[in-house]
Every structure is written in C-alpha cells, then in structure tokens.
Specification:
0% strand; 17 helices; disordered N terminus; flat; mainly alpha
Length: 361
C-alpha cells in the first residue's frame, strides 16, 4: 500500500521539464500579472492620466482645486494597478475566445495520450498556447496563460460550455469542438473509474466533529490569528480613545469577523481532481441517506486532501452531514438546472453525477 501511495503522489506532483508556463517563472500570480501589464499599453494610459492631473494642478486657480486634484491622484495611484490587471485579463480572455479552435486542437492533441493526467496535461496545453500566441504575434510575451488551471477554465468557458449548451456553430468548428470535448470527457471518466478503485489512501480515524464541540470552535481554531488580532487592537483603541462613532464602526468589524468565522469559508473543492475524487468515493461507498456512511466519505476525502499542502485545516469536511450538504448544494444540481459557473469543474461532471445518483444514492 505504501508503494501505491508513493507512486500516486509522485504522479500528481511530478513536472515535465519541457513545459514552460509562467507559474514556474514567477513568484506569484500577482508578480506575473504586473510584469504582463508593464508590457502593454495600460501603463502609458496611466502616465498620460497622471500627466494631465499634474497639468491641472499647476493651472488650478484655488487651494480647493488643489485638494481635489491631489485626492483624485491618490485614488488613481491606488486603483492604477487594479485597472492594469483588469485590462490585461480582458485582453487575454478575448484572445483565447477568438482562438477557441486552437484551444480545442491543443487539448485534443495533449489528452489523446493515454498516459497523460489532468493536472500536467493542462500545463502542457497552456505551454503550447503561450508559444503559439507569442510566435504568431498575438501576445507580446510568452506568458499569456499563467498555468494549467487557468487554461482549463478557458477550455470550460469557450469550448465545453458552447458544446454543452449547443450554441450555434459552423460545421467544421462544431466538429473540432466536439472532438476535443469527447477526448477530455473520456479522460475525466477514466480518472473517475481509477479513483473508484483506488483505496491506497486510508480514511482518517476521526473527523473534526469528533474533537470539537461545534463548527464555530473548529473554525476559530483554524482561523488566521492576524485578522483577529487587528480587529481586537482596533476595537481596544476605539474603546479607550475613540469617539462613539469609531467604537460603533469597530464593533461592527468584530461582529463581521465573528460572522465570517461562524459561517466559515465555503468549501468548494476547487480543483477538478478533488471533485472527481469526491464523486468516485461516493460511488464506492454508496452512502444513500445513511449519515454514518457519509462520515466514511468525509473521512476519506479529508485524508486525501491532507496530502495537498495548499489545503488548510478549515478546507475540509467537518462531518458526514457537511459532506452531504456539499454534494446536495454544489454537485447534484448540475444535472437539473442550467450551469452558470465555469470557474470550477461543472459541465464535465454531469455524467459522473448522474452515475453517482443512479447507483449510489
């Protein structure tokens, strides 16, 4: 079992040295986005804007005008990076949308290989598209798409969604998109079937519900101390030195903080792999309406997610009821209503959810 577990983790974490994506070359998504923004026309617009403000400041006729211009300049400085990032994101989306055929072709090429997995596969697709956009002059740098997760999101929005909703397409385009979707859907189904048979990850002995009185205490324990400390210091200062208005404002901050801790972060299982794993586990356990069986599902998923260093303590299931609620709210509705979200796995999970409901529920 230990060998199987090690092999599974290695397959998930290994990287292809030939895949060149911005995620490998930049410290964070933010630094990458700022670099990209400086290679576009947005900074020139910002410089022009500040130049006009400076001109207005020099020709202002009164002190009140000076104050207004300085205020506008301060707000502009705060919002300038945000505006640059938003403009850059929109340009990238427009580029991928116009070239959805290229995205479909790259996806079909990469995932035609039986050895390809979902995580590294999307990194390869992103790398191919980045090179294509750069060499053909559509993008000024070879860093258009940050990583495979972003590329997968584009595929879901501009290829999978139009195909699923049967939007109007011409014959050649329709054939290409459907071919790419078919290959990708088969890859998802293969992963689902493998996960159903994979028992290398043992369930945890306990759930958070076994060692915590309620969700609030569990989330409080896992909540970051920094925002709590800032709120306490602000309220303490206002209590002793501030006005009643300031006390009321900071009291509302504390109340809001407690509300956030009480409701907790919405567990979404944002990666496609985690959602497939959950559905495969439900199909394997077949819990039905038995809350004890749902506890088993929750334990297995928690154990699996513990292997991911990016998952924090609160990003797990509190108990089986929590797991059932997630399934009922996030996954089960996919087969009964129009899907509006494309940021996480949705369309590609419809066949899996249908199978789970038909066989395990």
């Amino acid at each position: 079992m230990g060998t199987e577990l090690t092999q599974k983790i290695d397959d998930r974490d290994c990287e292809d040295a030939s895949v060149d994506i911005p995620k490998k070359n930049f410290r964070s998504r933010f630094t990458w986005a700022l670099y990209e923004a400086t290679r576009s026309y947005e900074p020139l617009m910002i410089v022009g804007w500040f130049g006009s403000l400076l001109f207005c400041f020099r020709n202002a006729v009164s002190a009140s005008h000076h104050i207004c211009i300085v205020a506008i300049a301060v707000v502009s400085i705060i919002w300038a990076p945000v505006i640059c990032l938003i403009c850059r994101k929109k340009r990238a989306e427009n580029l991928v949308s116009r070239n959805n055929m290229a995205l479909a072709e790259a996806t079909k090429e990469v995932f035609s290989s039986k050895q390809e997995n979902l995580v590294l596969g999307w990194d390869k697709v992103a790398s191919q598209l980045n090179r294509k956009y750069y060499t053909e002059g559509d993008w000024k740098t070879p860093h258009c798409i940050f990583d495979g997760a972003e590329c997968e999101s584009y595929f879901r929005r501009y290829v999978l969604k139009p195909t699923h909703e049967e939007e109007t397409q011409e014959g050649c385009e329709k054939s290409c998109l459907h071919a790419a979707v078919s290959i990708y859907q088969q890859k998802v189904l293969d992963q689902f079937n493998r996960d159903k048979e994979d028992t290398s990850v043992l369930a945890e002995d306990n759930l958070p519900a076994d060692s915590h009185r309620n969700k609030f205490t569990w989330r409080w324990k896992n909540f970051s101390i920094l925002p709590i400390g800032v709120c306490v210091l602000q309220f303490s200062y206002a209590l002793f030195f501030g006005t009643w208005t300031l006390r009321l404002i900071y009291m509302m901050d504390v109340i809001l903080m407690l509300a956030v801790i009480s409701t907790g972060y919405s567990l979404r299982l944002s990666t496609t792999e985690n959602r497939i794993r959950l559905l495969a586990t439900i199909a394997n356990v077949a819990p039905g309406e038995d809350t004890n069986r749902w506890d088993v599902v929750a334990k297995r998923i928690n154990a699996y997610m513990n292997e991911d260093s990016n998952v924090t303590g609160v990003q797990r299931f509190f108990d089986g009821k929590d797991c059932l609620r997630f399934f009922e709210k996030e996954l089960k509705p996919l087969i009964s209503k129009k899907i509006k979200e494309d940021g996480v796995a949705t369309y590609e999970l419809v066949p899996l959810v249908s199978e789970v409901i038909g066989g395990a529920m």
